[in-house]
UniProtKB/TrEMBL annotation:
Ribosomal protein in keyword set: no
Domain Glutamate/phenylalanine/leucine/valine/L-tryptophan dehydrogenase C-terminal: 143-377
Top-rank taxon, per record: Bacteria
PANTHER family: GLUTAMATE DEHYDROGENASE, GLUTAMATE DEHYDROGENASE 1, MITOCHONDRIAL
PROSITE patterns linked to this entry: GLFV_DEHYDROGENASE
Keyword set, alphabetical order: Oxidoreductase
Family label: Belongs to the Glu/Leu/Phe/Val dehydrogenases family.
Segments forming a coiled coil: none
Keyword Oxidoreductase appears in the UniProt entry: yes
Species: Streptomyces oryzae
InterPro entries for this protein: Aminoacid_DH-like_N_sf (IPR046346), Glu/Leu/Phe/Val/Trp_DH (IPR006095), Glu/Leu/Phe/Val/Trp_DH_C (IPR006096), Glu/Leu/Phe/Val/Trp_DH_dimer (IPR006097), Glu/Leu/Phe/Val_DH_AS (IPR033524), Glu_DH (IPR014362), NAD(P)-bd_dom_sf (IPR036291)
Name under which the protein is recorded: Glutamate dehydrogenase
Length: 382
């Protein structure tokens, strides 16, 4: 069991709130990591396996992600210990929202993460009677439909394109393997295809498909819509692989866009890609990142590569109390501009500083957060 006090370091967390509700069986946690640059903002997830340690790690990622794209919100994350397929989901969600009414939306604004949908965001707003309580609501309620728009995956491909150009690796014709074919993975694969890359492998929790000659993204999407994650076991194109083997196929660019902690040191030794772009949060271990660097494989960190969702969230945050919906074209344009610029800045900082992109990007984010903490007198005097 995680000792919450042991999670505290010089950055945070500022607050950990654990809540429960006897009648519904709801158990959940909110971690507000660092609000020096603005109110806490991060997704709310629902899973039977949620833990305090996991949510704290993800809240810290949000701190660096907001600072990495230089947007003025703070890092936070929330989690509910429940099965999102349960018939009691709405009752549990409403109980969670009520339990955090002291913090939401003054200190934390809820959003979408694993296990929650746009309608769930609408339920949170309804329960607290406040349009500002959550973002990610359906477009017909004025929200920004992140998953339907595919902004996170789009941004992953844009960051990858910028990084590939920096490495003098033309994206046109480049072979790309994508782990995960959900909202992020599919949107990334679609954008890669639009940019001229060849998708040679995709995967779900049920397995992977691999075709060195290229897979048709549109056909894969149709198959997924029909069969769900099982489409990889029923699709006729490509060879079937066991889950995880897509990480080590022969390719130029690897995009882990599924879960955290999927690439350890052993797997890093087997990766054949020249460029790894983190579409998921925390997909590589510190040991894996060391191995990749030693092998000369460039890695674009998660808080840079998959920050398209936070850019879209910033638009949604601005629009919470507005009568107007954000313009989609403005969202995509800003995602492309910010993520391309940040990817290049981090790679150049890594080169000049003789360090890894992950450490260079982290250093940049830390400097921005530290500057805000100094201005607000949140640091201990020396």
């Amino acid at each position: 069991m995680t000792d919450a006090l042991s999670l505290i370091d010089e950055w945070g967390p500022e607050k950990i709130v654990i809540v429960s509700h006897r009648r519904t069986g709801m158990k959940g946690v909110l971690v507000i990591d660092n609000t020096a640059r603005g109110v806490g903002k991060g997704g709310t997830r629902m899973s039977p396996h949620v833990s305090v340690g996991e949510i704290a790690r993800l809240a810290r990622v949000m701190t660096w992600k907001w600072a990495g794209v230089d947007l003025f919100y703070g890092g936070a994350k929330a989690g509910i210990v429940a099965d999102p397929a349960s018939p009691d989901k709405e009752a549990v969600l409403r109980a969670f929202a009520r339990a955090l009414s002291n913090e939401v939306p003054r200190e934390y604004v809820m959003g979408l993460d694993m296990g929650l949908t746009e309608d769930d965001a609408a339920v949170i707003q309804d329960e607290l009677g406040d349009r500002g309580a959550a973002v990610g609501t359906p477009a017909h309620l004025g929200g920004v439909a992140y998953d339907k728009l595919g902004v996170t995956g789009y941004g992953v491909a844009e960051a990858a394109d910028a990084a590939a150009g920096y490495l003098e690796l033309p994206l046109g014709g480049a072979r790309v393997a994508v782990q995960g074919f959900g909202a992020v993975g599919h949107a990334a694969a679609q954008r890669f295809a639009e940019l001229g890359a060849t998708i040679v492998a995709v995967s779900t929790a049920r397995g992977a498909l691999h075709d060195p000659g290229g897979l048709d993204v549109h056909t894969l999407r149709a198959a997924r819509d029909e069969h769900g994650d099982a489409f990889v076991t029923r699709h006729r194109q490509g060879a079937r692989l066991a889950p995880g083997q897509e990480l080590t196929v022969d390719c130029d660019i690897l995009v882990p866009a599924a879960l955290q902690d999927v690439i350890d040191a052993a797997t890093a030794h087997q990766i054949k890609a020249k460029l790894v772009v983190e579409g998921a949060n925390l997909p590589t271990s510190p040991q894996a990142r060391t191995v990749l660097a030693e092998r000369g494989i460039t890695l674009v960190p998660d808080f840079i590569a998959n920050a398209g969702g936070v850019v879209a969230a910033a638009f949604a945050m601005d629009a919470r109390y507005s009568g107007f919906s954000p313009e989609t074209s403005a969202i995509f344009g800003t995602v492309s501009e910010r993520l391309r610029a940040n990817a290049l800045a981090v790679l150049e900082a890594a080169r000049t500083g003789a360090t890894t992109p992950h450490l260079a990007g982290r250093r940049l984010a830390e400097e921005r957060v530290a500057a805000a903490m100094r201005s607000k007198r949140r640091l201990a005097p020396h």
